[in-house]
Amino acid sequence: MDFEFAAEHESFRKEFRDWLATNLPPELCLDDASDDRVASDRETFERRRVWQQAMHAAGWVGITWPKEYGGRDAGLIERVIWDEEYTAARAPVLPGNMGLNLVGPTLIHWGTEEQKRRHLPAILNADEIWCQGFSEPGAGSDLASLRTRAVDQGDHFVVNGQKVWTSGAHFAHWIILLVRTSPDAPKHEGISCLLVPMTTAGISVRPLVLMTGHHHFNEVFFTDVPVPKANLLGPINQGWKVSTTTLMYERHSAGGRSHTAQIARLIALARQVAIDGRPAWEHPGIRQRLAQLAIDSEALKYTRLRSLTRQLRGEPPGPEGSVLKLSGSELGVRIADVAGELLGMHVLVNEASVAVPDAPRWFNRVLAARQYTISAGTSEIQRNIIAERVLGLPRG
After folding, report:
1. What is 74-139 written as a DSSP string?
2. Beta bridge partners of 341
3. 369 in helix, strand or coil?
4. At residue 217, what are phi and psi to the nearest 5 degrees?
5. Which residues contact 6 (CB under 8 A, 6 or more apart)?
6. What pLDDT, on the 0 to 100 scale, is given for residue 27?
């Protein structure tokens, strides 16, 4: 197995690395971009929109999208390199991330030509920011139980219902929305997907503030919201198939986060922070736990490469997506646990100190790590998928 990149790929890496070094504003950099993947305030959000627009103008946004829709038509290897270099530069999550990674690819697959022309260029340039209206109270892990209704009124639908855990809805211009259009059909067959402007009359957004104090999630309510038939994405009552496309991209993205930088920083802290009067690194138990985290992170790296290899060969998706999602999110929780053990009371302080200069990172990790075992499909759902579809075990 050859893990070396071809010369043209290394040239692509150098070009992007040099561009980031020259153009990325230092004030946008973050120790851990996932802590603030939805901007914490409007001013930060607008600065990141300007940054995405600068990246788009230079040809660094949507690099794997077809050229006819504004992309570079680059391959998967270039996308992997893009992710590695963007993360290494400590760059922020782009404000159009939802549109770029989930909505855009779904539109390319399912959208009409009119929908593609309308939305794809605007997504690339951060002129349209999207959120995802899937989960509901009582329909999170069992998404097909959703109850938000869209009633056919001839040339339009009228939507009533509620969505929850809607990331970035307070900044979004549009929402990709799952609704029930045929209540008498089997639950997976009576769902449709709509594209809805967030400025439509009857939509209200209410914040859900995290333990960290960050306004990331929202509840979104729909009261007699009119949606034109032209905004239907995919066939009527086939929204489950459309959502599967979106969730496939989401789970791949969620499972693809690298924990290497966090673990390296924990190891550095273990050499500085004292436990029982001596550096934590001198305690065999601490070294063993950190070594296991590094081993698990390396195993995830090679699982990602297996997934990449399948895609490069044109093979159908394998179990790697669910394995990556499950293992990656659970590893994040274990990293948070070790951080708490290592830092003790310091991990509860959300301010930098001489002892722990990046204390806010660990404060956020300890309080927020568990959410990743829920978003993009809970760990329990991923275990069911692996058990039933990979191992062939009977349904419980």
Report:
1. --HHHHHHHHHHHHHTTPPPPTTHHIIIIIHHHHHHH--HHHHHHHHHHHHTTSS-EEEE--BTTB
2. none
3. helix
4. -95, 170
5. 77
6. 95
Beta strands 203-209 and 191-197, pairing class: unpaired
* CA pair distance 14, 353, nearest whole angstrom: 35
At 1-30, the pLDDT tens digits run: 566 788 999 999 999 999 999 999 999 998
Instruction: Tabulate helix, strand, coil % of the chain (nearest 5).
Output: 50, 15, 35
Nearest to 280 by CA among 292, 270, 294: 270
Distance separating alpha carbons of residues 150 and 160, to the nearest angstrom: 7
Q: Please provide the DSSP assignment of 11-45 as one string.
A: HHHHHHHHHHHHHS-GGG--S-GGGGSS-SSHHHH
What homologous superfamily is domain 256-390 in, according to CATH? Butyryl-CoA Dehydrogenase, subunit A, domain 3 (1.20.140.10)
Q: Which of 78, 128, 250, 320 is catalytic?
A: 250
pLDDT of 396 over the 70 cut: no
Phi, psi of 9, rounded to the nearest 5 degrees? -75, -40
**Matching CATH number, 7-95, of 3.40.50.300, 1.10.540.10, 3.10.20.600, 1.10.1200.10:** 1.10.540.10
How much is the CA Rg of the chain, to the nearest whole Å?
Answer: 22
Amino acid identity of 243? S
- Predicted TM-score (pTM) of this structure: 0.85
Phi, psi of 82 (to 5 degrees): -55, -50
DSSP notation for 137-155? TTBSSSGGG---EEEE-SS
329 backbone φψ class: left, alpha, beta (φ>0; ψ -120 to 50): alpha
Burial class (CB in 10 A: 0-12, 13-18, 19+), 46: middle
Contact call for residues 291 and 266 (beta carbons, < 8 A): no
Over residues 329-365, the pLDDT tens digits come to 999 999 999 999 998 888 888 888 888 888 888 888 8
Q: Is-catalytic flag, 282?
A: no
How would you classify residue 62: left for phi > 0, otherwise alpha for psi between -120 and 50, otherwise beta?
left
